[in-house]
Amino acid sequence: MLFAALRDMQWRRRRLVIAIVSTGLVFAMTLVMTGLANGFRVEAQRTVDSIGVNTFVIKAGAAGPFLGATPFAQADLARVAASPGVVNAVPLACAQSNVKDGTSRRNVTAFGAPEHGPGMPRVPEGRAPSMPDEVAVSSTLGRRVGDELQVGAYTLRVVGIVPNSTAMAKIPNIFLTTEGVQRLAYNGQPVISSIAIEGTPRQLPEGYQVVDRAVGLSDMLRPLKVAWSSLTIVAGLLWIVAVLIVGSVVYLSALERLRDFAVFKAIGVPTRSILAGLALQAVIVTVLAAVLGFIFSLLLGPMFPMLVVVPAYAYLALPAVAVVIGLLASLAGFRRAVAVDPALAFGGP
User: Fold this and answer.
1) DSSP helix/strand/coil, 104
2) Are 216 and 48 in contact (CB under 8 A)?
3) Of the ranges 53-57, 228-232, 275-279, 310-314, which one carries the lowest mean pLDDT score?
């Protein structure tokens, strides 16, 4: 029976090739959707890691140290630094802004930290900003050291380049001094978003709380929650499309082989052997489509304007999921094969 199934696939190879390519594209898009959703987390993780802060002090009730921060007076820095268990305290600031890019504007996320303190990433090209009118920018902005960059209403001088520093769906990051972000976002007022601390505080001033790096990561991902959910839904729909494509091919094959099934039943071939042949066809189609989908995903990923990072587990799970999809897709053909009457083998054309 398995040999007969393989011969039938050879006979219908054109149809199967079309099904394999179509399903492979569906699998590839599923991997890309998964990579896009994972890319959000990878971007945020890289940004938080580059800042190099493990513990933040923020206002009580604030969502996080970055986008969800509640700004407070920098004067409270001294009170936090004097708290028992605090070894060092550094003021940080974060704000959304935009830069002039030709004749249009481009959104950026501005981070403020002391030149040599925690919160300022390593700057491989150039140096970290030391004055309020200096900025280190992501390489994705396409600027060079020494260029002038209009950020909001201010013109800043680019003194450093940080490689591929982005967050929130490829929005570039820029890094200024704390005073630079205060001038940019708070009209020069001594206001900060959070305090980076070293040590283990035993008691903080009233109205403040300690959060770790994981809270900072969640804070960066919060604006993308709806987009992440949408990508997940699309990926689920693509799995359903893959089942329908393979299922239609197997079902059409079963309809064209009804007389073959009747002959098999008439000569005593067990029904389970007939079903195994159909299952084999579906599984071969989906496994080959999975291999093709892996190749297509590598080609399609760089074409997207956002970061696509397909996690390793998705590649490992794809063959197993493909086998399950093949078995599910063959159910319609199973029912048709089981219901065929052996007397059909002795009928006319």
Assistant:
1) strand
2) yes
3) 275-279
Closest CA relative to residue 46, chosen from 222, 174, 167, 218: 167
Q: Cβ distance 158 to 149 under 8 Å?
A: yes
What's the number of CA atoms in the CB half-sphere (13 Å) around residue 142?
5
Token pair in block for residue 187: 């009209």
Per the listing, tokens 């974060």 go with 94
Residue 124 phi/psi, 5-degree rounding, is: -65, -35
CB 243 within 8 A of CB 333: no
The alpha carbon of 270 is separated from its chain's Cα centroid by a whole number of angstroms, namely 47
- Of 112, 77, 78, nearest to 93 by C-alpha is 112
The string of pLDDT tens digits covering residues 150-208 is: 998 899 999 999 999 999 889 999 999 999 999 999 999 999 999 999 988 888 999 99
Q: Residue 107 — very low, low, confident or very high, per pLDDT cuts 50/70/90?
A: very high
Q: For 302-349, write each residue's pLDDT tens digit.
A: 888 888 999 888 888 888 888 887 777 777 666 666 666 666 555 655
Strand, coil or helix: 144: coil
Q: Spell 37-53 as b/e; 16+ CB within 10 A means b.
A: bbbbbbbbebbbebbeb
Locate the domains of the chain by residue range. Answer: 2-43+226-346, 61-206
- The whole-angstrom separation of Cα 26 and Cα 238 is 6
Contact 43, 306 (CB under 8 A): no
Q: Are 170 and 43 in contact (CB under 8 A)?
A: yes
DSSP state of 122: P
| Residue-wise burial string across 97-107, b where 16 or more C-beta atoms lie within 10 A, e elsewhere | bebeeeeeeee
Residue 262 CA to residue 274 CA, distance in Å, equals 10
Cβ contact 23:246 at 8 Å: yes
Question: Based on the number of CB atoms within 10 Å of its own CB, is 96 exposed (0-12), middle (13-18) or buried (19 or more)?
Answer: middle
Question: Do 58 and 177 meet the contact criterion of CB atoms below 8 Å apart?
Answer: no
Mean pLDDT of 114-129: 92
